[in-house]
């Protein structure tokens, strides 16, 4: 069964989310390997949410996951349990589809989350922690996100956390083209930051990378790389500093910024924007004279209410996708019975062909005709089985093949690759 543990900016304080952000996909893979009752897991961790999806034997594994995540994050298990929501059953699909579509984001309609959901699945694949059920869930989430982005106003809004941060920063700057900007980080948010800055007309942009990737990133993006030797000067003279690194420890604090500002004679007013999770900038920088800090918690307080921004048709698409996903999931419950029936029919055909071969009567045309007949025989029952399963009546088909043919499907039977249940 699929279960999930989710926490976001609405259910958890940013201090708890910041700590949970240190739990990695590799950590979850270790949890999966250590728990016999857990078949797989996918971790979706972004700047304002922590979500772990499990394919587990029962919901008790979520309690174990709470304890594990708390230990990994270095926080009390009660704090994680109080901040996180345990999800099971149909609500999991509805939640993930809405998340992937940007409807549950800090800024509704943000574009980055769809890619983060896709990458979460890819990472789990690389770690060997996906399962067929998790694959179907996340793939359907991605398709739903694409439909919402392409067919609704939410998809064309073009809003995201970076752009909202610049909107909030706009009152501090009268002429964006002359603003000196330092970007710290070279990942997804850094690229989104550059795009937003260029849309605002910013011309002077320097990029610094704590991991040393600034030069290659700057050459690719057409901006200026800031080496370590120039960082203090750039920190002191930048009017806007945007930090969006995936570093797990703070990059900037009051002492470092104070030291940097001391290298110039009269440092001006500065706005520091921290988009990191965990936080890249310590809150004490706001105590410095002429320095203002805008972090995710502050941005969240200014984010538009979902009810005012999310389009009704976007939610309708999500609801439609959830219903289709549910029907597909119900259809999979009849798979073992269909496999048993198909195997029974084709085994009988194989036996008859072998009998004809021994008698020298099995020509190629006869074999093709018999296999074609077998396909015709299984087509309609297989299609009917899928219809019954989608309606929640899979047991009618299972009972029928047991009554007629004495077939009891194996409980661990899976659909054959490339085989359509409709025949």
Shape: elongated
Q: What is the CATH topology descriptor of the largest domain? A: Beta Polymerase, domain 2
Overall mean pLDDT: 88
Percent of sequence in beta strands: 5-15%
Q: How can the largest sheet be summarized? A: 6 strands, parallel
CATH architecture of the largest domain: 2-Layer Sandwich
**Share of residues in helices:** 40-55%
Q: Please provide the count of β strands.
A: 10
CATH top-level class of the largest domain: Alpha Beta
Stretches with pLDDT under 50, minimum 5 residues: 414-423
**From N to C, what is the helix and strand string?**
EHHEEHHEHHHHHEHEHEHEHEEHHHHHH
Taken together, the total number of domains comes to 3
Ends: how far apart? 27 Å
Find the CATH superfamily of the largest domain. Glutamyl-tRNA reductase, N-terminal domain
Descriptors:
423 residues; alpha/beta; Beta Polymerase, domain 2; Rossmann fold; six-stranded parallel sheet; four-stranded antiparallel sheet; 19 helices; 10 strands; elongated; disordered C terminus
């Amino acid at each position: 069964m699929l279960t999930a543990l989710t926490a976001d900016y609405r259910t958890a304080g940013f201090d708890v989310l910041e700590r949970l952000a240190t739990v990695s996909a590799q950590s979850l893979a270790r949890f999966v390997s250590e728990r016999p009752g857990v078949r797989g897991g996918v971790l979706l961790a972004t700047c304002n949410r922590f979500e772990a999806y499990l394919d587990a034997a029962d919901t008790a594994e979520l309690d174990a996951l709470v304890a594990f995540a708390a230990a990994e994050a270095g926080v009390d298990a009660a704090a994680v349990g109080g901040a996180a929501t345990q999800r099971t059953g149909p609500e999991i699909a509805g939640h993930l589809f809405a998340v992937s579509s940007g409807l549950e984001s800090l800024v509704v309609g943000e574009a980055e989350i769809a890619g983060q959901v896709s990458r979460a699945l890819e990472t789990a694949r690389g770690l060997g922690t996906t399962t067929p059920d998790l694959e179907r869930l996340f793939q359907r989430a991605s398709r739903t996100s694409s439909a919402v982005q392409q067919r609704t106003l939410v998809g064309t809004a073009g809003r995201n956390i970076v752009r909202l941060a610049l909107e909030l920063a706009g009152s501090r700057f009268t002429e964006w083209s002359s603003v000196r900007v330092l970007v710290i980080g070279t990942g997804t948010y850094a690229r989104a930051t550059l795009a937003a800055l260029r849309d605002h007309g910013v011309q002077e942009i320097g990029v610094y990378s704590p991991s040393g990737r600034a030069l290659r990133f700057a050459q690719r993006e057409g901006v200026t790389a800031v080496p370590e030797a120039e960082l203090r000067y750039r920190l002191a003279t930048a009017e806007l500093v945007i930090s969006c690194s995936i570093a797990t420890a703070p990059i900037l604090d009051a002492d470092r910024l104070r030291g940097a500002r001391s290298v110039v004679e009269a440092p001006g007013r500065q706005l520091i924007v921290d988009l990191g999770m965990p936080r890249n900038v310590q809150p004490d920088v706001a105590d410095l004279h002429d320095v203002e800090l805008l972090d995710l918690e502050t941005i969240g307080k200014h984010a538009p209410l979902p009810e005012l921004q999310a389009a009704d048709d976007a939610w309708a698409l999500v609801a439609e996708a959830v219903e289709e996903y549910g029907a597909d999931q119900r259809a999979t419950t009849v798979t073992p019975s269909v496999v048993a029936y198909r195997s029974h029919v084709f085994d009988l055909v194989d036996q008859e062909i072998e009998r004809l071969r021994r008698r020298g009567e099995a020509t190629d045309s006869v074999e093709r005709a018999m296999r074609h007949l077998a396909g015709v025989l299984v087509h309609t029952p297989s299609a009917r089985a899928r219809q019954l399963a989608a309606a929640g009546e899979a047991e009618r088909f299972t009972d029928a093949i047991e009554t007629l043919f004495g077939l009891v499907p194996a409980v661990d039977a899976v659909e054959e690759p490339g085989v359509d249940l409709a025949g």
